[in-house]
Amino acid sequence: MAVTRARSADRKPRADAQRNRERILEVARQAFTRAGAQASLDDIARQAGVGAGTLYRHFPTREALLEAVYRAELENLAAAAQTLTDTRPPIEALRAWLLLFVDAVATKQIIAPALNSLVEDHKKTFEASYTRMHDALRGLVKRAVKNGDIRRDLDPVDLLRALVGVAHVTSSPDWQRSARRLVDILIAGSRPVR
Q1: What is the pLDDT of residue 7?
Q2: Which residues of the chain have pLDDT under 50?
């Protein structure tokens, strides 16, 4: 019996189960962004085209779903760096990734406060995801520096700090539009002095 359980725990999820999980995460991200962390889980299941039982099988609690959405958002952001590296010139890849980062910050602003209060060890959730994200950004900046698009003394974290700073101006409902403009300003200001 224990051997059977161990084998089933090691097995990859079925393709349909994986698709359901991904669909739930995408719908949940949209719902949390639109309605906040208290968005209806039943509505999320319905919009994802699954039953409530399927949602709860994948995510037994609201906290589990919030954490999974947050992790998926940052994992997708980290993975996007490789896709952008493979398909765009260095400076364009960096710019596109920073624009994706702005969108991720918007999701984080909704989800992070709930994670802070609901998930016991939220710092672990944040740290693991941040490490991959920072590594992705460092790779994009390094490539742009090597190509001569960005000055050598640029600290990649400074780009993130500037964008997060704009996001913290919560009195402005159009902070995302400002942050998107700031991406171009940051890119222009990061060019080597000729």
Answers
A1: 47
A2: 5-8
Q: What is the pLDDT of residue 12?
A: 63
Joined together, the tokens standing for residue 158 give 């400074």
Task: Tell me if 91 sits within 8 A of 108, measured CB to CB.
Answer: no
Domain 1-60 has CATH 1.10.10.60: yes
Q: What distance lies between CA 176 and its chain's CA centroid?
A: 15
**Category of 188 on φ-ψ map: left (φ > 0), alpha (ψ -120 to 50) or beta:** alpha
CA angle 94-131-112, nearest 5°?
95
Two structure tokens written together for 115? 């994670």
- C-alpha–C-alpha distance, residues 69 and 31, integer Å: 11
62-194: which CATH topology?
Answer: Tetracycline Repressor; domain 2 (1.10.357)
Q: What is the model's pLDDT at position 60? A: 94
Task: Determine phi and psi for 16, rounding to 5 degrees.
Answer: -70, -35
Locate the domains of the chain by residue range.
1-60, 62-194
Query: What does the pLDDT read at residue 171?
Result: 53
pTM: 0.77
